[in-house]
Design a protein that fits this description.
The chain is α+β, with helices and mostly antiparallel strands and 196 residues long. The protein has 4 helices and 11 strands.
């Protein structure tokens, strides 16, 4: 089962805090996707070791919910955070066209993620929407989940994905702070692929 890992990790973020190295505005150039993005100021780098621990706990939650084994082939491009509940992550993983139609599989994964949230957060109210959005002239599939907790805290999860040849590229934004969400969305929407 192939899943975008921030959603698996997000399930355990409520009980975890990570400390990384504070970064000023940080420009990232990723050669694999000819992608340039500037990370906003005051977002900290999450170390690979910290992120792996969170991924593993999230994967365990999915495996427990669906009684299955999750295959994690994702390669992390970066993870940044601000405070405990505002994350910006990007990854990619191989996509085998023999697995089936990409859009159908994307919908199936979204259903699994939503179901995992429901099972792991039974007292929260969930809402989701699927759409598309153009970033740097390229169409991305978008899946958004809004979780309202009994204490009235609201968390938004946004997952943007598309195929680049035989690689699935994903950007994930998780926030409770609307201002930080706005900063991350501006950074993402202003990023450039292929010099566009």
């Amino acid at each position: 089962m192939k899943l975008s890992i921030i959603f698996a990790s997000a399930i355990v973020l409520l009980s975890l805090g990570c400390k990384g190295q504070t970064q000023n505005e940080n420009k990232i150039n990723n050669k694999d996707f000819d992608w340039t993005i500037t990370i906003p100021k005051n977002f900290d780098n999450v170390t690979a070791e910290q992120w792996t621990k969170m991924q593993n706990k999230g994967i365990e939650a999915i495996e427990k919910t669906y009684d299955t084994i999750v295959e994690n082939n994702a390669k992390t491009i970066f993870v940044f955070k601000s405070d405990q509940f505002n994350y910006f992550e990007s990854n990619y993983q191989p996509y085998d066209t023999s697995d089936g139609d990409y859009l159908e599989i994307f919908k199936e994964v979204n259903g699994i993620l939503y179901g995992t949230f429901e099972a792991q957060m039974p007292n929260a109210k969930l809402d989701s929407i699927s759409s598309t959005e153009k970033i740097s002239g390229l169409t991305f599939q978008v899946f958004k989940v809004t979780i309202t907790f009994p204490n009235k805290m609201i968390m938004d999860f946004l997952m943007y994905s598309r195929l680049f040849g035989e690689k699935e590229f994903t950007v994930n934004i998780m926030t409770v702070d609307k201002e930080k969400q706005k900063l991350l969305l501006e950074a993402w929407r202003n990023s450039k692929f292929g010099g566009k």
